[in-house]
Amino acid sequence: MQHGRARREGAAVRCVSIRQPWASLVAHGEKTVELRTWAIAPGPLFVASSTQIWVPDDPELARWVREDGDTWPRGVLIGQVTVAEVRPARADDGPAAGYSSDWDPDEYAPEARDYAWVLVDPVRRARPLPPVTGRLRLYDVAVAAVAVRRRAE
Asked: Does 21 sit behind a cis peptide bond, omega within 30 degrees of 0 on the bond before it?
């Protein structure tokens, strides 16, 4: 099946894999900006959690990740959002992108190649759909498979 044709016919939705804990924060609506080095067209987007967990440089945050990391769903489809806007990243995108509350926009100068995907309408799945084989960049997920599993829940 050609991915572009399937998406145009409504048989597939774009999906992005995001490392935990960021994926769960997106699905819960707590992370409303995704910073990437590439732009996409606005529209629906499935969110899959990567099998890998983000491990921060900060020792205190790293301890939190090690303690809670086993409870985060990994390698599964955990939700859906709508990409409302894609624009050049700004220095003040940090808090919405999930950076710490002591974010200093003066210390972050977005690269000219950085894009901010503005995320709205998060829908978190009550039960994640395993397994999702993540890929780099965007990939398609068949809507029919998601709908069948949703009815079974």
From this structure: yes
In this structure, the number of other CB atoms found within 10 A of the CB of residue 24 comes to 20
Q: What is the CA radius of gyration of the chain?
A: 16
Look up the pTM and report it: 0.76
Query: What is the residue-wise DSSP string for 35-78?
Result: EESS---SEEEEEEEEEEE---SSHHHHHHHHHHGGGS--SSEE
DSSP string, 99-111: --TT--GGG----
pLDDT tens digits, 17-62: 998 888 988 999 999 999 999 999 999 999 999 888 777 676 776 6
The full length of the chain comes to 153
How many CB atoms within 10 Å of residue 118?
Answer: 17
Question: Among residues 128, 144, 132, which one has the least CA distance to residue 51?
Answer: 132
